[in-house]
Target: STAS domain-containing protein
Amino acid sequence: METPEKDSIKVGATSFNWDINEGLFEYEGSDAVLFWIKTSMKTFLDTMEEVTGTEAANLVIETAGYRQGIIVSQYFGDEALSPQEMLSRLIPRYAAAGWGRVSIIEFNEKEKTAVVQIKNSWEFKLNKQQEKVNHDYFFPGHFAGLLTGILGENIWYKVTQSQTENDDCCEISLFPSNKTVTENIHELSKTKEQRQIELLEQKVADRTQELTDVINEISSPIIPVLDKIIVVPLLGKYEENRSEELTNKILSQLPDHKASYMVLDLTGIDEDISEYSIDMIHKLGVSASLLGTETVLVGISPKMGIKLTQSHFDLSGFNCFSTLQHGIYYALGREGRQII
Model:
């Protein structure tokens, strides 16, 4: 028996037409296409989630459902039908198209509210195939869009039952709201942008901390140059945290060197010396003396000398020299030694 080139069937009030030669399929007089839920549709949605992420994919599905609902609300064109009549005519068509069993549980045209139940929808079947545990997004968005078009006022939804979450059906409560799909899209964009900013800020903070740790590790090390004589070069500009960390580091290591003289080399320090740096030098000198170590200052530039004087820093407790070499010679001489 040959397959007919053209065929038609009517299920309830819904018509289906095929034209094999032209490769056409019509649903209610309009071009349509068939997909297998467990394979083609699943692959399509899996790919979308892989590319965009689950959150964005859910928003796309919700938005598509809403906008399709707006289109469906225009199905009867200029026919003078009440909202209740429109819904009554539309509901059987969902079942005929394989969308699932749809029931309008409550509808209040005056309050513009409704409760819709859907059982065995294609979205539920897809969720099971994808092993999802959250509620539907397409159908709630779809019926929000459908009622928005029918009632002429923006409607949004709340899912009160979910077949995906092991309830008997998906139940959707619909009501007037200022929430829109456009607002949701903008909100997702802002959320993703904020996440990117926070991620970038965290990366900057982590990198800054890494660099700070490296700087603290390599800056101003204690250099034992000769027996009982150590040199500590001070580098750059010291703010509160760095000066405190350096002071603690030097004082904790000082006893290990059993040094009689600590030569603080100020050659590499910022000439516009900060109050933190001045206070750090003072603390190092006083604390070192309590440990039996004399502090010698070297490398003080004229500009730094003026700054130290203006800060009322008392240099009388320190022996000061222009170069590191002179400072070491002084310490050697005090020890009764010399370089030959």
